[in-house]
Amino acid sequence: MDSIKISVHESDRDPDLTVVRVDGVIDTLTATQLEEVLDKLLRRGRYQVVLDLAGVDYISSAGWGIFISRIKEIRDNGGDIKLANMVANVLEIYELLEFDNILASFDNVNMARAAFSGMMTESAKKKPR
Q1: 78 phi and psi angles, rounded to 5 deg
Q2: CB 56 within 8 A of CB 89
Q3: Contact at 8 Å (CB) between 53 and 22?
Q4: Residue % of the chain over a pLDDT of 90
Q5: 86 in a structural domain
């Protein structure tokens, strides 16, 4: 059975930023759990979200759909979703589906955090492999 573990971290260093660490598989059975976490963040006005996907081996269309369905509301409120630490097979699907035109991907959480601070230039973002 597929399982997912989600942890949410907010720090004093970045008071507007939330890092959501996900471990496991994001598919039709587990996507609702991630959706609930994102919905709670949005209800609290948390619109700067870094999704740390280092522990995610697979994201189904249901999982990708959660990110895409929330992006308009988040951006309308001055925020964004940044993806970080994607493993090779997840990154491959992300690029194949051309989600890199919608959601930015970074090598690590610190680079994604910096992008929110405006400290990172576009050329410093993760390049397609």
Answers
A1: 80, 15
A2: no
A3: yes
A4: 83
A5: yes
